[in-house]
Amino acid sequence: MTQQYQLFIDGQYVAPSNGRTMPSVNPYTGEVWAHIPDTDAADVEHAVAAAERAYQTVWRQTPGVARAVLMNKLAGLIEAQAERMSIIETTDNGKVIRETSSQMKWVGRQLRFFAGYADKLYGQQIPLDQPDVLDYVMYEPYGVVGLITAWNSPLSLLANKLAPALAAGNCVVVKPSEHASASTLEFAALVQEAGFPPGVFNVVTGGAQVGQALVNAKGVSRVSFTGSPGVGREIAAAAGRRLIPVTLELGGKSPNIIFDDADIGKAVIGALAGIFGATGQTCVAGSRLLVQRGVYEQVLKGVAERAAQIRLGDPLDPKTEMGTVANEPQFKRILGSIERAQQVGARLVTGGRRATGPGLDKGYFIEPTVFADVSNDSELAQEEIFGPVLAVIPFDTEEQAISMANDSRYGLAAGIWSRDINRVMRVSRAMQAGSVWVNTYRALAAQAPFGGFKESGIGRERGEVGLHEYLTTRNVMIDFSNAERDPFAIKN
Ligand code: NAD
Question: pTM here?
Answer without folding.
Answer: 0.97
